[in-house]
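Ticket #4471: structure output looks truncated?

Reporter: J.K.
Steps to reproduce: submitted the chain below (261 residues) through the standard prediction queue, then opened the result file.
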Amino acid sequence: MSGNFFSIKSNQILGSLALLMVIIALAMYANYTWKQSEDFYGPTTISVIGKGEVVAVPDIGQFSFSVEAEGAEANVAQTESATKVNAILAYLEEAGVSESDVRTQNYSLYPKYRYEQRICPQGSYCPGEQVPDGFSVSQTVEVKVRDLDQAGDLIAGVGNLEATNISGLNFTIDDVSALNAEARATAIADAEAQAKVLAKQLGVRIEKMTGYYENEGVYPERYYGMGGDMAMDQSVKMISPEMPVGENTVASQVTLTYQVR
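Returned output as attached by the reporter:
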């Protein structure tokens, strides 16, 4: 009786050991198959896109104006243009705009021509010709406004000082580096949270991050059109307009890639 008992126990132990060895063998085979698959197809990865936004009040405004002048000689046109531009620059300086916040975008001097028709004998054709008709000067200046409460007054003042064209005002953020970093951090946190949820849903484990890509930051500017390039009627003084600033959004988008098992 005792012998049978030990014999049964021995068989049970051997059976358990055999089952354990089968399990180990299957696990080793699965791991081998996984590694072979990785070698052939590459590691299994998941990718997620994270987004982040930061809302901020603009701290600067920008607008541009142009001055045009004409003259029979180049120096006459240039002198007239310079006189007008210098008067506007003096006004801006007196209003507190720093010299470093005013820059010339474009300056051009070019000859003008008029078309003259030749006198021809009756019944014949004589082509006309272009003849010199003086010179024209155009200078475009961009102004950065740091005191936003001044924006409307400055535009009105420039318009009253013979600026021929004023391009619309836009409000933006002078230094977006800190805001961009904050938006990026928010986007990364969003992507990481998504990766954890996705890995759980797929029944895999995240091992390490293998890829990172960031889209360029987006900084929408608030723009106030002035009816396109607006030629000023010098007989009418421009009234200072109200300029609501509103808010701008600094956005970031990142793509994170993770290796999983």
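Triage note (M.O.): checked the attachment and the full token line is present. Residues 2-41 form the longest helix (40 residues).
Status: closed, working as intended.
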